[in-house]
């Protein structure tokens, strides 16, 4: 048995950021244990990659660990020699840098390691290289069972477990899921590399994950046809050419007493009135020679206030009807990937279709899939040498394969958010368990709080939330 003041479960961007800021603010030496099976910190699903085509989807400047030191990461990047030294393609046409995601992971890891070596509170930050499997309440807080056989007692548990690897969606979740041609994990470079160069490939999804996989296939010299399908056929919208070159100061845009959107357009209680207001703002911007990007950015940077204020029924309505539209405007592709995809599309090698997969069956070393087109309802059966699952990570606790998440849910220590996405938490990220009471011993941070905050996916939004809640957490740990 081992013990710590704080057990952080998950050492990706969120868990690393939590430990860094806690050690700066704690005010007294704490023992902080990060439970993380990966060797490297700060990486997680998004940044634990060395693939040269996995790039940040927004400019370098808005990816920060320290919101109050906006020049820190650009300075670090420049010190390493900047794009000229190791990544000449990093510069986008808008004059912003879009470095490889692995570089950002390296930066976050370096920051954490420097705080492990020494920090303002004299806290100890250590790595327990294991998976947390289960939690039980204890006299002081919680006792965790770890995959290395140890038990870990902690006064405060911080769940920063982020995303699950995507699961096989129907109809690929049955007998087909074990077929060698079905690639459930699109971030597994080995599996993508094993696909024969001339194979006909079906990509499930059209979002950033799909674009990542397609870019890797094309770089590997894939010559066979690639078809990407999604039910509604919606693809990430390119950033308009008229959009401002340098991003505005996102920290000032988010850290305000009243959000930008509310200040300009008042408060809205329904998803539909938000949509109408946004559309009217876009029309006005376009009439003045601008584009949708500015008004949309005002809403994106106001989600911290707009989302919690929506009644539950409206949140559900948004998730059902509008989320997919929101997401294709919210998440841009890095320009470098956009170009490669456009070239393959123009050459006729790559196509996108609004369709869904009705059935799938093993067909020797290939998979036979029935595709149903949106609108016409027309069906066709095609044989694919490989099917790559790019449907994206799942944040529903009730579908999680993560035993620790299942343990928290089954004991009622943390309850799924009423939208079904992520866990329910209060403003301070305290878990709201089955009884609805905030638990001061269990905090949940990062993407698993999507239902509560909706904006906890991008790095800047996560970092800002951590910085908002950590003074209160540090004060509670001093008591
Ligand atoms: C492919 C992809 C690309 C992205 N690109 C960008 C981008 O360009 N810019 C941006 O701002 N955001 C991007 N994002 C959003 C990104 O998720 C966040 O920026 C952030 O990385 C989330 O980090 P996290 O630590 O919360 O989660 P994760 O990255 O999922 O890390 C969670 C960690 O928890 C560990 N873990 C899980 N369960 C357990 C357990 N039971 N016990 C112990 N450890 C556990 C995992 O091993 C993992 O390391 C991207 C997301 C994805 C998926």
Architecture overview:
- This protein is an alpha/beta fold and 479 residues long.
- The protein has 3 domains: 2-164 and 394-478, FAD/NAD(P)-binding domain (3-Layer(bba) Sandwich); 175-236 and 333-389, FAD/NAD(P)-binding domain; 250-330, no CATH class.
- It contains 17 helices and 15 strands.
- The protein is globular, with a radius of gyration of 23 Å.
- The chain starts with a strand and ends with a helix.
- 41% of the residues are buried.
- The mean pLDDT is 94.
- The structure holds flavin-adenine dinucleotide (FAD).
- Flavin-adenine dinucleotide binds at residues 9-15, 35-38, 44-46, 56-58, 63, 101, 131-132, 160-163, 209, 393, 402, 404, 446-447, 457-459, 462.
Task: Set down the secondary structure blueprint.
Elements: E1 2-9, H1 13-25, E2 31-35, H2 44-47, H3 72-79, H4 82-86, H5 101-117, E3 124-128, E4 132-137, E5 142-146, E6 151-159, E7 182-183, H6 189-193, E8 201-204, H7 208-219, E9 226-230, H8 250-254, H9 260-265, H10 271-287, H11 293-300, H12 303-309, H13 312-330, H14 335-346, E10 350-363, E11 366-373, E12 379-384, E13 386-389, H15 403-410, E14 430-432, E15 438-444, H16 450-453, H17 459-478
Parallel strand pairs: 1-2, 1-6, 2-3, 6-15, 7-13, 8-9, 8-13, 9-10
Antiparallel strand pairs: 4-5, 5-6, 10-11, 11-12, 14-15
Please outline what is shown here.
This protein has 17 helices and 15 strands. The protein is of the alpha/beta class and 479 residues long.
The averaged pLDDT comes out at 94
Q: What's the architecture of the largest domain, going by CATH?
A: 3-Layer(bba) Sandwich
Roughly how much helix do the residues carry, as a percent range? 25-40%
| Annotation, overall tally of beta strands | 15
Query: Rg from C-alpha positions?
Result: 23 Å
Distance between the termini: 25 Å
What proportion of the residues form beta strands (DSSP E)?
15-25%
CATH T-level topology of the largest domain: FAD/NAD(P)-binding domain
Global structural class: alpha/beta
Can you tell me the number of structural domains?
3
Low-confidence segments: none
CATH C-level name of the largest domain: Alpha Beta
Considering the protein shown, what is the CATH homologous superfamily of the largest domain? FAD/NAD(P)-binding domain
The general outline is globular
């Amino acid at each position: 048995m081992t013990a710590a003041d704080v057990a952080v479960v998950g050492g990706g961007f969120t868990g690393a950021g939590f430990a860094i800021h806690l050690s700066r603010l704690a005010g007294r030496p704490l023992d902080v244990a990060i439970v993380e099976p990966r060797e490297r910190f700060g990486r997680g699903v998004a940044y634990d990659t060395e693939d040269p085509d996995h790039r940040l989807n927004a400019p370098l400047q808005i990816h920060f660990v320290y919101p109050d030191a906006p020049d820190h990461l650009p300075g670090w990047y420049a010190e390493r020699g900047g794009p000229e030294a190791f990544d000449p393609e990093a510069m986008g046409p808008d004059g912003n840098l879009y470095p490889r995601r692995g570089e950002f992971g390296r930066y976050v890891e370096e920051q954490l390691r420097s705080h492990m070596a020494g920090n303002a509170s004299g806290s100890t930050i250590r790595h327990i290289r294991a998976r947390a499997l289960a939690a039980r309440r204890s006299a002081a807080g919680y006792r965790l069972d770890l995959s290395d056989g140890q038990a870990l007692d902690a006064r405060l548990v911080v769940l920063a477990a982020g995303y699950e690897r995507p699961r096989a969606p129907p109809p690929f979740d049955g007998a087909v899921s074990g077929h060698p041609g079905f690639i459930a994990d699109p971030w597994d470079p080995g599996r993508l590399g094993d696909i024969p160069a001339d194979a006909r490939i079906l990509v499930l999804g059209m979002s950033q994950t799909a674009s990542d996989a397609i870019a890797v296939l094309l770089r590997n010299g894939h010559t066979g046809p690639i078809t990407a399908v999604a039910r509604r056929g919606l693809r990430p919208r390119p950033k308009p050419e008229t959009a401002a070159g340098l991003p505005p100061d996102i920290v000032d845009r988010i850290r305000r007493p009243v959000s930008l959107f509310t200040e300009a357009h008042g408060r809205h209680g329904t998803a539909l009135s938000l949509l109408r207001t946004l559309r009217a703002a876009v029309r006005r911007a376009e009439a003045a020679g601008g584009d949708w990007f500015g008004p949309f950015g005002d809403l994106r940077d106001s989600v911290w206030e707009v989302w919690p204020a929506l009644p539950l029924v409206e949140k559900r309505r948004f998730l059902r009807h509008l989320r997919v539209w929101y997401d294709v405007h919210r998440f841009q592709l890095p320009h470098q990937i956009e170009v490669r995809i456009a070239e393959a599309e123009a050459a006729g090698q790559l196509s996108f279709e609004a369709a869904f997969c009705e059935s799938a069956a093993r067909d020797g070393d290939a998979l036979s899939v029935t595709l149903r087109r949106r609108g016409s309802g027309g069906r066709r059966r095609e044989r694919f040498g490989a099917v790559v699952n790019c449907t994206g990570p799942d944040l529903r606790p009730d579908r999680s394969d993560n035993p620790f998440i299942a343990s928290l849910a089954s004991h009622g220590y943390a309850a799924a958010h009423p939208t079904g996405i992520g866990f329910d938490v209060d403003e301070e990220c305290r878990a709201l368990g089955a009884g609805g009471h905030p638990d001061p011993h269990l905090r949940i941070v990062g993407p698993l709080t999507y239902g509560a905050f909706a904006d906890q996916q991008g790095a800047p939004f996560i970092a800002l939330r951590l910085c908002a809640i950590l003074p209160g957490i540090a004060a509670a740990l001093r008591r």
